[in-house]
Amino acid sequence: MNIESALDEVFQEVFNDSAIHVTEATTADDVDGWDSFTYINLISAIELHFGIEFSQNEVLNFENVSELMASIREKLS
Amino acid sequence: METMESNHKLIKTSGNLGARCSDEQIQLGNGEKTALIFISSAFQVSRYTFFDLKRESNRYANAFQKIGLKAGEKALILIPNSPDLYFLFLGLLKLQVNCGIVFSNAGAATIRNRLVETGTKTLITTVSAARKYASLFTDPDHPVRAIVIDGDEMTDHTRGIRFLLSEASVELNVPPTHEETPSLFHFTSGSTGKPKAVQHVHGSAQNQRNSFREVIQPATDDVYWCTADPGWITGTTYGILAPWLNGVTQIQFAGGYSAKNWMKILEEQKVTLWYSAPTAFRMLMQNTEAFFRQFDLSALKRIYSIGEPLNPVIIEWGSGVLRKQIYDTWFQTETGSMMIANKPGVPVRPGSMGKPLTEIQAEILTSEGVPAKPMEKGFLCIRTPWASMFTAYIRHEALYQEKFKNGYYYSGDQAFKDEDGYFWFIGRNDDVINTAGHLVSPFEVESALLEMDEIADVGVTALPDPILFEKVVAFVKCLPGLVLDKKLELRIKLHVTNRVSSIACPRDLIAVDRIPKTRSGKIMRRVLRCSVSGEPLGDISTMEEE
Fold first, then answer.
1. Angle at B229 between CA B389 and CA B317, to 5 degrees
2. CATH assignment of the domain containing B489
3. What is the mean pLDDT of each run of 10 residues along chain B (546 residues)?
4. Which domain holds residue B26?
5. Using a CB-CB distance cutoff of 8 angstroms, which residues of chain B are in contact with residue A48?
6. Are residues B310 and B442 in the same domain?
7. Which of B13, B21, B106, B381 is deepest in the core (most CB within 10 A)?
8. ipTM for the complex?
9. What are the start-end ranges of the E strands in B149-232?
10. What is the DSSP string of B417-439?
């Protein structure tokens, strides 16, 4: 599975913006509308899309998309 | 240390809010002083003096004038937090354009409602936002034109002004501005109907400047930071206008909440005066004391709070962990500036809103409209008029008049006053939800949810939350055969976020078979709340039969 393109879809749905393209360097500040509230929606959407679950500690400590991708990869492997 | 009182002298002024924040500060000798320290989300720091504020706001005013924006017109600003947001806002004020700033997490429906509700036909925005919200410009019922500041594209609905800006003069004769001239509008939520636009005027500067001086008590070399989004009344009044009306250096940060980044800003920028909100403090409190010890916060003198009642436990945390006093303050979108506050020099009673400001007469009135006795619960009211008092709910004159009775403004809050004149907040006397310091209308959330095909009926209310003070909770009756599973929950949350705002997004969704209503069809939110809290339902004689 290409995680990056799957994440693009999730981000586009969550932030209602078909032009979003995420990279490993993407952070909250790069995406219009990303705040502490939408972040919760984003995590739920990723969990549903990939059929995985993040721990509370992980959710609190992701600093960028790279860390998010690494965690998804690990859970899918 | 010189205090701000030295600047308190008579000067020639146009009475214009935009000019008073920039041109007037130059007349007062603050031209070379840093007005704005702007920190990008990538932590790039730019500094702008009051000379810069004047020049750049003039440039915007001239460019706007050139494309036909006129005094008395309305414009809505949808611009990411950037120095240009502040320059163009002051430029619009200088032109006497009546403007509103859209908060950063507004959804498409919210933006459209704001345009339609106020009859605003101009949206000042960026290329990317104009693309994202393109449907706004072709709405046959309410056509809107976009003025795009970072492009030169010209279409039927879009006017790019990037080149115009680069060529625009930095000289401007700001027209004399009467104190009753409309300046800006903000939206506030009621328990029914859509949010209403609250109109303010240029004369509000008096209370904005004086309240800041009385409560925040800035000194000449202070560095001030208000963390509120510029789209909210606190962000506009105390994150743009009041500090600059007092010639104070202030910080703006484009990034969102992050305990580490916020502490870094306090440390690196040597912030001395910090204005934030209880929700933010409660989020910070989740960090250990050792976390805060990594940062040198010795420059910080005082902390202020706004938006929701400040729990005593937060004040204790501030004194213990940050080693600073946190002062609670109270005002509303309608009041335009602080009305009641705790301030240096007056002992703080933890949990109290403080005392009315010098220029304000606040009172607790009983249901008979007479002053309540000490400790007696009643309606929190403000004696009219005061300079920053709102002048209208745009297009809702009857609702506006309903807020006033016998020379008092009724705030909608319930409170009591103790024997020493301290005010204590009890709660709202309507259904408005105060979540993270922002007022959310349950009606607005319900309206968005009822747009969804899967939902047959819905009731929205508030439940207590340890971080947010109150959280938005939606009781959902799905169409027959549908189940409120995780997928539908997510769809519902995304729908509200993208239609209304992320703040209005329900934190909890509860599946129900029916929504309790009165026989006249009004949702009984109290019954919904009690179904979760387990409290007695009370009088349900008006509830419709199944």
1. 95
2. 3.30.300.30
3. 37 79 97 98 95 98 96 96 97 98 84 94 94 88 94 92 97 95 90 82 96 98 96 95 98 92 97 95 92 97 92 92 96 96 96 96 96 95 96 95 96 94 88 87 88 92 92 94 94 93 94 85 85 78 66
4. 15-319
5. 486-487, 490
6. no
7. B21
8. 0.89
9. 158-160, 182-188, 196-201, 223-226
10. E-TTS-EEEEEESSS-EEETTEE
- Domain with A29 in it: what CATH number? 1.10.1200.10
φ, ψ at A41 (rounded to 5°): -60, -40
Strands B223-226 and B249-253, how do they pair?
parallel
Asked if B330 contacts B339 with a C-beta cutoff of 8 angstroms, the reply is: yes
For residues A44 and B426, which has the higher predicted lDDT (pLDDT)?
A44
Q: How many residues does chain A have?
A: 77
> Mean pLDDT score of chain B, rounded to an integer?
92
Alpha helices in B141-192 (DSSP H): 162-167
Q: Is the Cβ–Cβ distance between B276 and B324 less than 8 Å?
A: no
Residues in contact with A38: Cβ distance below 8 Å, sequence separation at least 6, in sequence order? A14, A15, B105, B497, B502, B505
- Cβ atoms of B205 and B213 within 8 Å: the answer is no
Tokens 């949206």 appear where?
B123
Residue B472's identity, in one-letter code, is V
- In chain A, the residue whose alpha carbon lies closest to the alpha carbon of B493 is A41
Structural domain boundaries, residue A20: 3-76
Q: Which residues of A touch B255 (CB under 8 A)?
A: 28-29
Place of tokens 């008979």: B368
A29/B104 CB distance under 8 A = no
Residue B331 lies in a domain: no
Q: Are B309 and B328 in contact (CB under 8 A)?
A: yes
Exposure b/e, B9-40, CB count within 10 A at least 16 = b: eeeeebbbbbbbbbbbbbebebbebbbbbbbb
In a domain, residue B361? The reply is no
* Tokens matching residue B59: 């440039």
User: Residue B486 is nearest to which of A14, A38, A48, comparing CB atoms?
Assistant: A48
Q: Which among B105, B487, B498 has CB closest to A35?
A: B105
Question: Which of B129, B254, B497 minimises the CB distance to A41?
Answer: B497
Residue B423, both tokens: 């005010």
Compute the distance between CA of residue B396 and CA of residue B394 in angstroms, rounded to an integer: 5
Number of structural domains chain B divides into: 2
B247 belongs to a structural domain: yes
What backbone torsions phi and psi does residue B229 show, to the nearest 5 degrees?
-65, 135
**Contact indicator for A57, A43 with CB cutoff of 8 Å:** no
What is the tally of structural domains in chain A? 1
How many interchain CB pairs under 8 A, A with B? 61
This prediction's pTM = 0.84
- Chosen from A38, A46, A53, A59 to mutate, greatest number of chain B CBs within 10 A: A38
Q: Are strands B378-383 and B362-365 parallel, antiparallel or unpaired?
A: antiparallel
